[in-house]
Design brief:
The chain has 419 residues and is of the alpha+beta class. The protein is built from 11 helices and 21 strands. It has helices at 52-69, 77-82, 93-108, 118-123, 136-144, 174-188, 282-295, 297-306, 357-370, 379-382, 389-397; strands at 18-21, 31-37, 40-48, 89-90, 152-154, 159-161, 193-198, 201-205, 214-219, 228-234, 238-243, 248-251, 254-257, 260-261, 266-267, 272-279, 313-318, 323-326, 334-340, 343-350, 406-409. Strand 9 (214-219) and strand 10 form a beta hairpin. Helix 1 (52-69) runs antiparallel to helix 6 (174-188) and helix 7 (282-295) runs antiparallel to helix 8 (297-306).
Length: 419
């Protein structure tokens, strides 16, 4: 269904998987609006160098892209391709560009990102809200129909062909692509500071008007109050989160979410609650956030290490609430109370995948001092450089003395410089 083209300005209310925080010199952007498009609420703020005309152009562009890419709109190019019966379907230049980049990401991730899982997403009821758990035989049949390598894209002729019955959906990359394209457009128009929150996919243009970075908060998946777990400082970057909490339902005590494993056509269960990707290319961040959630921690880290050319940071939040952050030189710390035989025995401070244990220990001691804590033991007192983290935890328990003890546990991984 086509929508009216009139634009409505609304009070700004940021929401979604990634929340924005921090202070700026001015209290309000030059122009801003909030719209519902691509099945989500989007908030656009132009802070420096922007005009109402430029904002209107950005909004109109989002509506045009929705008309092209909606898998449920019978007038869209994607709907036509999904219902072409195996025949070639014509695409616009923007759709070819997005689909080309998305298929490249499918190949790069070994199919952990797969655009042809739409039939499975529908079968679970995530497109309509009429949720159900398919039987094993149905899931097997759905998984057999997921294969991005069967998508034929003719870039020169601007056309695509799918096997009959296969359905394509660009939802895993569309908002990231839209944010990247809008940011590029605004920069060319002279906008030097802007925040684009495309339903939790955050794209920044420049920094704050005072020149400082934007502070983008990563939501705590376990929080019912939409609290931030940590904040990331960014300039001219995208921040995209995929999480099991974003769209899910419960049945018979089990939670099912919309991020599906293409190999099983069922929700990907890898021990993760969310994955956040930060980088210069919103399309890459959007696609990787989904793929890394599907791959899980170990395989995801291998992919990240193998493709440093992407220039992304990754933040994994495990189901137990612990965090792994890769891709910058910040030392990631996590304080956890240690309980042995039901009694509090002190605090464990976990570090993982740090570049240099000695440098990390100095940084950690500074953080502990800020909290009024004292580290009683050093890295070398507890573990060697190559000790696995689980064994390190067991060893650390033997050092617990009192509630005030803080045990530092580190892991150097392969010994390579990972940051």
């Amino acid at each position: 269904m086509k929508r009216a083209k009139g634009l409505r300005l609304a009070a700004l209310a940021l929401g979604g998987a990634v929340l924005l925080s921090g202070c700026v010199t001015r209290t309000e952007p030059s122009v801003s609006t909030q719209i519902f498009v691509m099945d989500t609420i989007m908030s656009l703020e132009l802070w420096e160098g922007g005009s109402q005309e430029q904002l209107n152009q950005a909004v109109e562009q989002l509506y045009q892209w929705e008309d092209l890419w909606s898998a449920t709109d019978e007038d869209s190019e994607i709907w036509a391709a999904d219902h072409s019966g195996g025949e070639w379907g014509t695409l616009s230049g923007d759709t070819v560009d997005l689909l080309s980049q998305a298929l490249d990401l499918c190949r790069l991730t070994g199919g952990a990102l797969d655009l042809t899982a739409y039939s499975a997403v529908k079968a679970w009821g995530f497109t309509t809200g009429e949720y159900r758990v398919p039987e094993e035989e149905e899931l097997a049949a759905l998984a057999d129909g997921i294969d991005h390598t069967q998508v034929e894209l003719d870039r020169d002729a601007c056309r695509v062909r799918l096997p009959a019955g296969m359905e394509l959906d660009l939802g895993a990359v569309a908002k990231g692509y839209a944010g990247a394209r809008l940011a590029e457009q605004l920069r060319e128009q002279g906008v030097t500071s802007a925040l684009l929150n495309l339903g939790g996919n955050v794209q920044t243009v420049g920094g704050k008007p005072d020149g400082s970075p934007w502070s983008v908060g990563v939501q705590d998946p376990a929080s019912e109050q939409v609290d931030n777990l940590l904040a990331i400082q960014v300039v001219d970057q995208a921040v995209v989160t995929s999480g099991s909490y974003q769209r899910c339902f419960q049945q018979d005590g089990q939670t099912y979410w919309h991020i599906l494993d293409p190999e099983t056509a069922a929700p990907a269960r890898t021990g993760l609650a969310s994955v956040t990707v930060v980088g210069p290319d919103g399309t890459v961040c959007d696609g990787l956030a989904t793929a890394l959630f599907v791959l899980g921690e170990e395989a995801g880290i291998e992919l990240w290490r193998a493709h440093s050319e992407l220039g992304v940071q990754v933040i994994w939040v495990r189901e137990d609430g612990s965090v792994i952050k890769l891709g910058d030189r910040d030392v990631l710390v996590r304080l956890d109370p240690m309980v042995i035989d039901g009694e509090p025995k002190g605090t464990v401070l976990m570090l993982q995948y740090v570049e240099n244990l000695q440098k990390a220990e100095i940084a950690v001691r500074q953080k502990l001092n800020q909290k009024g804590l004292v580290a009683k033991y050093s890295f070398q007192d507890i573990i060697g450089h190559s000790a696995p983290i689980q064994r390190a935890v067991e060893q650390a328990k033997r050092f617990a003395r009192t509630d005030s003890d803080v045990l530092i546990i580190g892991e150097s991984g392969t010994g390579k410089e990972l940051f």
